[in-house]
Design goal:
globular, 3 domains, D-amino Acid Aminotransferase, Chain A, domain 1, alpha+beta, five-stranded antiparallel β-sheet, 17 helices
Length: 513
């Protein structure tokens, strides 16, 4: 019998499992030929109200197909879980990317298990509701002592699954998830001594929201806008901007905010409305902070990892490309971040990592910033922490797996195993109505004909992801690897040009030429 979810017994068993990670990490991780099993759980265990607003979100589990690249290790087995079966063409696409390993050899060490359920319910919950599927996962893990589970993000659901499978979870303990909320992020930034926008966290309802807006404006009379954010918003969804234009001063300010708030709050998600947002804010709580105004503004991020031995490791830096009404929704990124400030971002992110380590955090984390140029100098404001994999995780992992290289903190550059510098541009949102109806086979046909693929000899090229979302949603992800960011962006432009042209041809009944 398994302990009830959330019970003291389950928490105790989970803590016992997690103690296995450090010796596992010391014994197996450094040896590429060591036998191991990795259970990949790409469940998006996030707020369903926010997930429902992301086009093609059912296919976002595919981003973790990058973990199939672990099969390049000749004695590693991968168990990949999914809500719906992985399309055979997509599977073949990833297996043929493996450097130095025959696809057939890798296929024998891969187990694909599906819940056959395309609903927005988190995959982990679907698995827990299917005892036969749980039993099947247990059976295919040959040696639990050399196995662990990895996931997109860790919640109480993933903790329960880890306990029921008897596998340690290489991710942040769900008990610490508050540190990755908007409120928790601001508190960690304060402890780390990292500058952030003036604001207030831990706000509980509309009254707190109004009071925070009033206090911000009173303290900064020239403040034009403020950001209002749900604690558990994702990729900009759950964010809104309030305008102070025409606001009075003094005692009249609060009443004016109360009247104007429902009308003036502008949401990043275009279908959002005041009443549902207010209700979600009351359920989830949130923050209000000053909106950083500048003619020249960027959104860099730093990614780090806290390993099972307690070491904080720098992973990467990126410049994020944002969209939406006020540029808060993640669209893509260039790697690495601009050399004008990447070292500042690295240092700040590592300071955050030390605070997180002291609190017991394990696994990947990311820190997002807003950076503005003032008098020829860049000033950085920390915005949020993500205690999970993110939009920049899978492209960086693909780069690592394909080139066997590393990121160098002292230069802020990534080099391949042969010492060549590599950069990339990546996006989860290459989208067009004309792409609808293109199948995975169509995409592979187009990419093969036009050489839109990764060239192993030169270690540059194009890799697609989110391929399953293409036909229904007209949406696909792309990673363009090159020796400079300019070349990567040029490569991306060429990819878009080819897809647009071929999509139009197929609408007319023609094939690639």
């Amino acid at each position: 019998m398994h302990p009830p979810p959330g019970s003291a017994e389950e928490l105790s068993r989970f803590a016992e499992l997690q103690r296995r990670l450090a010796p596992l990490y010391e014994r197996i991780f450094p040896d590429p030929r060591a036998p191991r099993t990795v259970v990949v759980n790409p469940s998006l265990s996030l707020n369903p109200d926010i997930l429902a607003k992301i086009a093609g979100v059912q296919h976002y589990e595919e981003r973790m197909l990058c973990m199939l690249m672990l099969l390049r290790l000749p004695r590693t087995r991968v168990v990949f879980l999914s809500s719906q079966p992985v399309h055979p063409t997509i599977l073949d696409y990833y297996l043929h990317l493996l450097p130095g390993i025959p696809a057939g050899h890798a296929r024998k060490r891969l187990t694909l298990l599906s819940a056959d359920d395309g609903s927005i319910t988190p995959l982990t919950q679907k698995i827990l509701e299917r005892p036969q599927l749980l039993q099947h996962i247990r059976r295919v893990v040959d040696d639990p002592a050399s196995a662990h589970m990895t996931c997109f993000n860790a919640t109480a659901l993933e903790r329960t699954l880890a306990v029921q499978l008897g596998l340690p979870l290489y991710a942040c303990d769900p008990a610490l998830s508050e540190l990755g909320t908007k409120t928790g992020s601001r508190r960690v930034f304060k402890e780390a001594g990292i500058e952030m926008p003036p604001g207030f966290e831990g706000l509980r309802d509309e009254g707190d929201m109004v009071g925070a807006l009033e206090a911000l404006k009173a303290a900064q009379p020239h403040l034009r806008h403020a950001a209002v954010k749900l604690n558990d918003g994702t990729s900009g969804e759950g964010n809104a901007v309030f305008s102070f234009e025409g606001s009075p001063r003094g005692n009249a300010l609060r009443g004016w905010i109360e009247r104007e708030l429902p009308r003036r709050l502008r949401f990043e998600e275009e279908t959002e409305r005041w009443e549902p947002f207010r209700d979600k804010f009351t359920r989830m709580t949130g923050v209000v902070e000053s909106w950083i105004e500048a003619d020249k503004k960027r959104s860099p991020s730093m990614q780090g990892r806290i390993d099972p031995l307690g070491e904080v490791q720098l992973v990467s830096t990126h410049d994020q490309l944002l969209g939406g009404p006020s540029q808060q929704i993640y669209l893509g990124a260039t790697f690495p971040a601009d050399e004008a400030y990447r070292f500042v971002i690295q240092r700040a992110g590592m300071r955050v990592g030390e605070v997180l380590k002291a609190k017991g955090v394990l696994g990947r984390y990311g820190v997002d910033f807003v950076s503005v140029e003032e008098g020829g100098e860049w000033k950085h404001y920390a915005i949020e922490i993500n205690l999970r994999k993110g939009g920049t995780t899978h492209p960086y992992l693909m780069l690592q797996f394909l080139t066997d290289g590393e990121y160098h903190a002292e230069t802020g550059l990534y080099t391949t195993s042969g010492g060549q510098v590599r950069t990339y541009y990546t996006s989860d949102n290459l989208e067009s109505p004309s792409y609808k109806g293109l199948t995975p086979d169509d995409l592979i046909d187009i990419s093969a004909y036009h050489s839109l693929h990764f060239h192993g000899a030169g270690q540059q090229g194009v890799v697609f992801h989110l391929i399953g979302a293409l036909s229904e949603y007209g949406k696909v992800g792309v990673l363009c690897v090159a020796d400079s960011i300019g070349a990567a962006l040029k490569q991306y432009g060429h990819t878009v040009e080819v897809l647009n042209r071929e999509a139009r041809k197929r609408q007319c009944g023609d094939s690639a030429d």
